[in-house]
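Support case: user asked for a sample of complex input and structure output to validate their parser. Sending the pair below.
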Amino acid sequence: MAPSGPRAQRNTRNPSAPTKPGGRSGGIKKRGAGGPVRTDRDGDLDMDAPAAKGGAGRGNRPPNTNGTSAPPTGPRRSTRSAPAGGRAPKPTTRAADMVKKIVESGGSGNLSSRIAAGRDTSSRHTRSRPVNGVDRVTLVVRGLKESKASSNDGGGLRDLLIFLERKAATVGKLHRTVKINKSTMKGDLVYITANKEDAEEIKKINGFEFASARLSIEELPEGTSPGLSEQSQSLKDQLTTVLGQRYNQESKLMNLSDLGQDPILQQMGMFNQATPEKVFRALMVILEDNFKTAQAKREGIHSVSLAGNNIDDVHQIMSLADALPDLLNLDLSRNMFKDAKALRKWSHRLRKLEALYLSDNPVGTDASAMAEITKLFPRLQNLSGVQVRTKEEVEAASRAPRVFPIPQFGTDFRDLNRVGEGFVTEFFALYDTDRQTLAAKYYDEQSTFSFSVMTSSAHIPNAPPLTWSSYIRLSRNHVRITHPPSRYQRLFVGGPLVQDAWSKLPLTRHPSLTVEFDKYLIDCHPMSGLADPTGSELGGVEGMIITMHGEFEDQDPETKVTSKRSFSRTFVIGPGFPGRNPIRVVSDLLQLRAYSPLPPQTGVPEGIQTSAAPVANAPINPVATQEQMAIELSKQTGMTLDYSKMCLDAAQYNLERALATFNEMRAQLPAEAFAQPIA
Amino acid sequence: MAANFEDVAKQFVNFYYQQFDTDRKQLAALYRDQSMLTFESSAVLGTNAIVEKLSALPFQQVKHQVATLDAQPGVNGGVLVLVTGQLLVDEEQRPMNYTQTFQLMPESGSFFVFNDIFKLVYG
């Protein structure tokens, strides 16, 4: 991006100033590459780059305005971090601390980047923002100064942090990573902050040797903190002033236009100290910090202007979508957007955006670009002053169920003598309560079980973080597990091994198959040619292949946290050995992933009854049948489940009659009778 | 194809989706007359019917992305494969998630698809 700062102005104001061939340097990218100042525009994400690279880039930095002139090369932090002469430490504030780090991106740039990465949602994650405050613990680490690493770039801080994170994970034999969220070096001490759980692990490294020096690690008593340097506090104050001056409470507008010409930012020399992207991100951090709740933020800012900031791709202002996900109006006019592609990174963000201004951008009013941009934002109605959708259209679209190009059908259960129905019903009841009995009953020497975990899932806003630590050790996803012995170990053959594997998995609760049948999709088909356990049928015997999709809850054995997840499970079942349970599981393949509701069923199966579920022909119980009919009616009419039930009640649970009634009464039904959009 | 059932599964899945995404009519070679395709609960039997069904699906461009793949030795030297992944069709911006179960059967040094059960599981 963008807010171009004094340099860019000079270029535009003084045509004789040497510019690169190719004329106007659009984004900061190009300027950075050819310009006099910075080469580390990506420093914030360049976690593992040698510090020397950043150092070289910073070497050209003009002396900053705060008096503590930085050395021309090398780590800034070590000079800056001198303790503030016995002064009582100021209370730390998360935002100021973060801003300092983002802006400095000094020796421990990798850390600020990590903090930044926590909020940089260009990396897909379901994890929520980094924990703040409550669960954090600050530790003080001694020994870095005495270590050989202290002569490294950045005083060895980065090496120390990496050491601590790795060592804590290995010493604790953890199957997760340990993360240090914050760090400051002050004199001979290093202060690190991590969540409580990780801090406990890091404390175990106390007394370990690091680069020929013994480390001492202890927890800071609550209430004390390393404090902020005066400098970062003043930085925060100044940026807060900038935001304050640019905020109009009455119109709920945060006007961040022409940041490059902002007198305070100029006076602070912000654009000499940090890339515009970082300045912007710092502003967003402070902005977020100024609102106590998401609701306050949503109500406090409806509109943002970023006009005249030289932005050529939204990735330069990604943090806007994170800080203000519910933004309604956005002015991006007078920037450098040249096509719709430059906005694509926001395709799943700013879902509430209603007005977007893009006038005076290179993209112009190109019709196909405008159409594509409209598609990116489902509620967009006003694009640069042109109405692209009406409010009614937006409402209608959000009400309509998502239509899949592939019609979706519900359960198709072609059972043999209700064997499949009996099996799945018993299976899940026992799986939740008594896996040992279940394994003994259905799994013999040749039964096989394995499962795989999809750890990445679509981003679900506000979803609690989901961990897979209880599962991942046994997950047999061939996409990830490629080592043959590891695959072999994760395939469980025979009842005892299956039972053993199950005993390592968290306790679960599946919805009742009889009462909450709508939470499952089950297909069941006869399958011939199974090996006959008795060996007498050469052509094999008849079995069944059952595929199920649904949801369940589990409880983490350690944290006792319950989580909702989705699963798919394929069974092959066949006749059991003589003298044993008549049914045996031949194969059992389980797949687990983050919870997501089953899709709405939009199609009508060909050639079979609409309700081919077992309940239609062989009711499991009357309640389930009624439930199933209500779902079916709701599906066909768009009415809510409650209204569908009322309608069915009146029609004595005759679906046809209920449908006829619906068609007669349709016009008189209140709006609430129909399924409401899910926001 | 490889003898190891896991390699069979992986090679098969790669080949199947590659072929599906480029020209799904060519998938005929993988099915036999006793093969059964269950696509969103509508089941068809035999190569011709299967290819007809696949060709008639209401999209032109399609791209599969496999997220998880697990395989077990199946009956009579077969391989049972469970795949989950994402499917992007035509202009649709949001991928659809699916699961697919394959029952592969050996046949003169190679394998064919005996059962193929496809389901969209969540949006």
